[in-house]
Amino acid sequence: MAKISDKTKEAIIAEYQLGASKKSLAFKYDVSIGAVFKICNGISQADAELVKQQVAINTALANENETKVKAFHEIVDEKTKHLIYFQNAALRNQKKADEMLEMSDRIADVEAHSRITARNKETVLGREADTVINNANVQSEQKIIIERKELKGDE
């Protein structure tokens, strides 16, 4: 059997990470299944869920008319472009704030850095709920005891 090229190895790894089976990869690239096992050793199929999600989206759009499908893809592309822009801007902003913090010696600058970091975190990771709801319905069994003490002069 001929030596497997680096380009073929990269393609096998990429497809395996996206959920392709080792047997199908061996058949597709005309290599032994043992070679595919060696190439994919220690590699996880972490992105297989993305493929499943895209298949579900494509299946849902299959019965729609062409205009609606085209509009769907345009809106998704536009929102993705905006999201990536804001994430990149937040990362640039954070780098600049980190540089300014290193040169600073005032506590006000540290507090400003903290606020900037919090805003950038919300931009990149999304906003988290401000409150935590505790649904524990625990009955308190504490007893309050009131003692009456005699005051001087009361007789």
Short description:
The chain has 155 residues and is mainly α. The protein is 63% helix and 0% strand. The chain has two domains: 1-63, no CATH class; 65-124, no CATH class.
Explain what this protein looks like in three dimensions:
- There is one protein chain.
- The protein has 155 residues and is mostly helical.
- It folds into 2 domains: 1-63, no CATH class; 65-124, no CATH class.
- It contains 6 helices and no strands.
- It has helices spanning 6-17, 22-28, 33-39, 48-61, 66-103, 107-125.
- The chain starts with 5 loop residues before the first helix and ends in a 30-residue tail after the last helix.
Strand-helix topology:
Blueprint: H1 6-17, H2 22-28, H3 33-39, H4 48-61, H5 66-103, H6 107-125
Helix pairs in contact: 2-3, 5-6
Order of helices and strands: HHHHHH
- DSSP summary: helix tally: 6
Question: In this structure, how is the largest beta sheet organized?
Answer: none
Compute the separation of the termini in Å: 112 Å
Mean pLDDT across residues: 82
- The helix content, as a percent range, equals 55-70%
Highlighted features:
63% helix; 2 domains; 0% strand; mainly alpha; elongated; 155 residues
